[in-house]
Design brief:
The chain has 290 residues and is of the alpha/beta class. Helix content is 34%, strand content 18%. Strand 1, helix 5 and strand 2 form a beta-alpha-beta unit. The longest helix is centred in the C-terminal third of the chain and has 16 residues.
Length: 290
């Protein structure tokens, strides 16, 4: 199952109409449901996160005015579909948060699944209040006692320097039928290209200026698993098949700046009218071990 990759699809996706959700809760996903998040999934996850838009801030209201779901929204909706009560879930490189922009969903899914293990060599893992178990270790050295049904890698692939070693560890941490979700930046997006030109010592200063990021959340990047071709080749060599892939328009470069965010969203809309993809994108993919 593949999400269409054209910008027009993500601007006006051909999804089912959102269902009425009277209690504001996320239902458990149906067995055998499609992997790709539908319009209904995105609407439910967005409503679960922001609640009544009349009481929400300017940013979610602006997103809805432009009929836009950001990459985090897509990732969160996808993971919400894959986590079931029997799921053994490994979150690689999670740091302090499962979903940095959606603590409510993190708590919902942590309570739903059978086991949630956070794996990260960074000391920020100690601050994570959602995972059931914390393991301060890099994925390359991880050898679990039992395999996991689901592995998530949110903004991790860009930091992996040895893809082959990482996939060997993922193979050892999963069983046939297990799924790995990769959510990462696109190697060829403008921000990624700039980050490769700017010395790492300046990365935090720039992130702090635009996104108000903390220094302990800034790590070196290498971009060896940040194109569809490299991901498909790396996972394919390890016996994983691609189930879903999408380029997701990322209109968050302007960070907290309201007027610039409006310009980004308007630019995306105009480009889509001409059949052009927005230049800044994230990648979202699911791979299944065979």
């Amino acid at each position: 199952m593949t999400i269409a990759e054209s910008p027009s699809c993500l601007l006006a996706p051909q999804y089912a109409q959102p269902a009425t959700d009277t209690d504001g809760c996320l239902p458990e996903p149906a067995v055998g449901a499609s992997i790709a998040p539908t319009r209904q999934d995105l609407e439910r996850t967005f409503a679960h996160k922001h609640g009544d838009l009349s009481n929400a801030g300017w940013l979610p209201r602006m997103q809805r005015a432009f009929d836009y779901f950001n990459p985090d929204d897509h990732y969160e909706a996808l993971v919400a579909k894959l986590v079931r009560p029997e799921t053994r879930w490994l979150d690689v490189g999670c740091g302090r948060m499962v979903f940095p922009s959606n603590a409510l969903l993190a708590r919902t899914l942590a309570d739903r699944c059978k086991l949630l293990v956070g794996l990260d060599p960074s000391e920020t893992l100690d601050e994570n209040q959602f995972v059931h178990r914390k393991i301060r270790q890099p994925i390359e050295d991880f050898r679990p006692d039992q395999p996991f049904d689901l592995v998530t890698m949110r903004m991790v692939a860009e930091h992996i320097s040895s893809p082959g070693t990482t996939l060997a560890a993922l193979t050892g941490a999963t069983h046939p039928g297990s799924r790995v979700v990769v959510y990462t930046v696109n190697k060829w997006s403008p921000i990624s290209l700039i980050s490769r030109l700017v010395p790492f010592g300046l990365h935090h200063a720039l992130k702090q200026l635009v996104w108000d990021a903390e220094e302990k959340d800034t790590f070196p990047v290498v971009y060896r698993m940040n194109t569809r071709r490299s991901l498909t080749a790396t996972f394919g060599q390890a016996g994983f098949a691609e189930l879903m892939f999408a380029h997701l328009d990322d209109c968050r470069t302007s960070g907290r700046h309201r007027r610039l965010r409006h310009v980004e969203l308007h630019t995306r809309r105009m480009l889509a009218r001409f059949g052009l993809r927005y230049p800044e994108t994230c990648l979202l993919a699911v791979y299944e071990r065979r």
